[in-house]
Write a structure and sequence with these properties.
The structure holds 2 protein chains of 2 kinds. Chain A is α/β, with parallel strands linked by helices. Chain A has 2 domains: 5-251 and 262-267, Aconitase, domain 3 (2-Layer Sandwich); 276-430, Aconitase, domain 3 (2-Layer Sandwich). Chain A has helices at residues 5-14, 39-50, 75-91, 108-114, 146-155, 180-191, 206-209, 213-221, 237-246, 304-307, 310-320, 336-344, 352-358, 413-422, and strands spanning 24-28, 31-34, 62-64, 95-96, 123-126, 140-143, 157-161, 165-171, 200-204, 230-232, 264-269, 276-278, 286-288, 299-303, 328-332, 346-347, 350-351, 362-363, 388-391, 407-410. In chain A, strand 3, helix 3 (75-91) and strand 4 (95-96) form a beta-alpha-beta unit. The radius of gyration of chain A is 21 Å and the shape is globular. Chain B is built from 6 helices and 7 strands; from the N terminus they run βααβαβαββββαα. In chain B, a hairpin with a 5-residue loop joins strand 6 and strand 7 (159-161). Chain B has a single domain (6-163), classed as Aconitase, domain 4, CATH 3.20.19. The two termini of chain B are 17 Å apart. Helix content of chain B is 21%, strand content 17%. Classes of the chains: A alpha/beta, B alpha/beta. At the A-B interface, helix 2, helix 3 and helix 5 of A face helix 4 and helix 6 of B. The structure holds iron/sulfur cluster (SF4). Iron/sulfur cluster is lined by residues 68, 107, 109, 128, 130, 304-305, 369, 372-373, 393-394 of chain A. The site of iron/sulfur cluster has 12 residues of chain A, from helix 10.
Chain lengths: 432, 189
């Protein structure tokens, strides 16, 4: 019997001819990524376990991206950045994107591909659950804790239980009112927040393969919201073109064997899917934008690793152009590269920045996770009271964006922008 | 922590889908885990993100950690499905350990949280063979026997089954991934 992509990648990295779902194997790691929230704890464990003079296993394979608590006056948060800086200096690490320098990037999952750290066929671990985003590049990528990350820092290895793969096939290109966010919210509504626990989620079909790299990242980003271990999309010409534009490192793409065994296969027609929202307080609490139409909003938020990429802002700008927002609207680019894109990308003679400013939206001064995870109380866009918010982010658990009493609806940039204009949840087809 | 065969303690009962933002809200993730005094704050704020009305079932409104303290009066958490979902923050299982938790018994776990609990050796994540959250009350006295795979509610006299630890037994027994790697010769002692 053949192997799935995920099985094949893991087998190769374990130096074995094959690996099957359920096997526990030790794999060699290509990239370990950490950030300001989990880096300090990881470094603490690394020093304790390997000694104060220990060196990381491979300087070229460690990537450190501060992104979570950046634009805050919280002193503890600043101390965490200092700890990262000291470690980078001590270990002489080349891939560190320091706050307050030209190298600063912002949200790690978007920064990784922009800087050429995501490559087909590789194994990437990160101390952040949305590390699964990088599966969009045809690699195995998943989130881990500080202890596992410290273990990798010292050894370059980690044990993995090889997951079974659930396959999701989408037929037909996306209709003009849909985005990848609608597809993944639809799937999570179908299978539930634990529907893919311990499993890989593989996305394919012409509906998926016709998506841009950024949209593919949105699909893989939210597999963790279904409990998935990793999300993966076969690499094709789109992937290779993107990756080769960012890095000259060689890579070897892998594909499913024709006789690979899948846990399950689900098929969808994209034309059957509606603009979708996840209602408070769970990503699987699915509704359509139509069903929720009229729900009053205090705020709209466009940002994060899920919905703060350049294409997400282009989509929002299509709807916000020439309009005035009725709900307070926050715009947070995921990375500095996306932020530059807002200023330089034009839509009918206006930059995205101008479109957002004229619509009355508030633009973040910097790129970071910002209010996607609440953060310190002075965080840009944080829900500090019982606000009702519609957001392009990925989680709407109680208190996720700040206050426990706030209510968060998750939706695509189209739906969020349309709702921002009307001040109530709105199907984007009313504008497109 | 290396594994204790029999764990005794009082139950703190929670519902389904207790995510890591509820276990330790993001704004608290800034404290040092290596500073012995400062790390206690993780105990102080453990489970502080759980909405009050479902904190300590069935009645709710029971604080997990008494105000001003960092240790809980409860040692065993009883949870429903998908315990520990959401972020990969290891601060979550560690906060529970700092608050004095020695075992969690849930119907099922989110993968990263489970793995962190095992590899970090923070406490034993047990899976129950049936739904317990309607049967056990916050404050009940519990006795867990790992090798027998049983959970006894001393207060009500009822017993329940636990699933075998399976693949992770060796790591749990060793007390975490580092201890396991040393024991098996992968790392120098
Ligand atoms: S943007 Fe949100 S989901 Fe993404 S890494 Fe930052 S906090 Fe996590």
């Amino acid at each position: 019997m053949g192997m799935t992509m995920t099985e094949k990648i893991l087998a190769r990295h374990a130096g074995r001819p094959r690996a099957s779902a359920g096997d526990n194997i030790w794999v060699n790691v290509d990239i370990l990524m950490t950030h300001d929230v989990c880096g300090p704890g990881t470094i603490g464990i690394f020093r304790k376990q390997f000694g104060p003079n220990a060196k990381v296993w491979d300087r070229q394979k460690v990537v450190i991206i501060p992104d979570h608590y950046i634009f805050t006056n919280d002193l503890h948060a600043h101390r965490n950045i200092d700890l990262l800086r000291d470690f980078v200096k001590e270990q002489d690490l080349p891939y560190y994107y320091d706050v307050g320098t030209d190298k600063y990037k912002g949200v790690c999952h978007i920064a990784l591909p922009e800087e050429g750290h995501t490559r087909p066929g590789e194994v990437l671990f990160g101390t952040d659950s949305h590390t699964c985003t990088a599966g969009a590049f045809g690699e195995f990528a998943t989130g881990i804790g500080n202890t596992d990350a410290a273990f990798i820092l010292g050894t370059g290895k980690l044990w993995v239980k090889v997951p079974e793969t659930m396959r999701f096939e989408f037929e037909g290109p996306l209709p003009p009112y849909l985005m990848a966010k609608d597809l993944i919210l639809h799937i999570i509504g179908d299978i539930g927040v634990d529907g893919a626990t311990y499993r890989a989620m593989e996305f394919s079909g012409d509906g998926v393969m016709s998506l841009s790299i950024e949209e593919r990242m949105t699909l893989c980003n939210m597999v963790i919201e279904a409990g998935g271990k990793n999300g993966v999309i076969p690499s094709d010409a789109v992937t290779e073109r993107f990756v080769k534009s960012k890095t000259s490192k060689p890579f070897e793409a892998v594909a499913d064997d024709p006789d690979a065994h899948f846990h399950s296969v689900r098929r969808y027609k994209t034309s059957d899917i509606q603009p979708t929202v996840a209602k408070p307080h769970s990503p699987d609490n699915r509704g359509t934008a139509r069903e929720c139409a009229g729900i009053r909003l205090d705020r709209a938020y466009i940002g994060s690793c899920t919905g703060g990429k350049l294409n997400d802002f282009v989509a929002a700008a299509k709807i916000l152009k020439g309009q005035q927002v009725k709900a307070e609207t926050y715009i947070v680019p995921a990375t500095t590269e996306v932020a530059r894109g807002l200023a330089t990308t034009m839509l009918d003679g206006q930059s995205l920045t101008e479109i957002f400013q004229k619509a009355g939206a508030k633009l973040s001064q910097g790129a970071s996770c910002a209010a996607c995870l609440g953060g310190p109380s002075d965080t840009f866009g944080r829900l500090n009271k019982s606000e009702v918010c519609i957001s392009t982010t990925n989680r709407n658990f109680p208190g996720r964006m700040g206050s426990k009493t706030a209510q968060v609806y998750l939706a695509s940039p189209y739906t969020v922008a349309a709702s921002a204009v009307t001040g109530v949840i709105t199907d984007p087809r009313d504008f497109l | 922590m290396t594994m204790q065969e029999v764990i005794k303690g009082k139950a703190y009962v929670l519902g389904d889908n207790i995510d890591t933002d509820q276990i330790i809200p993001a704004k608290h993730l800034v404290y040092s885990l290596s500073d012995p005094e400062e790390r206690k704050l993780y105990g102080t704020y453990a489970l502080s993100g759980v909405p009050e009305k479902v904190a300590g079932l069935p009645k709710g409104n029971i604080p997990f950690v008494p105000e001003g303290d960092h240790r809980s009066r409860y040692q065993v958490i009883i949870g429903g499905k998908n315990f520990g979902s959401g972020s990969s923050r290891e601060h979550a299982p560690e906060a529970l350990q700092i608050a004095g938790i020695t075992a969690v018994v849930a119907e099922s776990y989110a993968r990263i949280f489970y793995r962190n609990a095992v590899d970090g050796g923070f406490f034993i994540p047990c899976e129950s063979t049936q739904r317990l959250i309607a049967d056990i009350k916050t404050g009940d006295d519990l006795e867990i026997n790992i090798s027998a795979g049983t959970l006894k509610n001393v207060t009500s006299g009822k017993s329940y089954g636990l699933r075998p630890l399976g693949d992770v037994l060796d790591i749990v027994t060793a007390g975490g991934i580092f201890a396991y790697a040393r024991k098996t010769g992968m790392l120098k002692p």
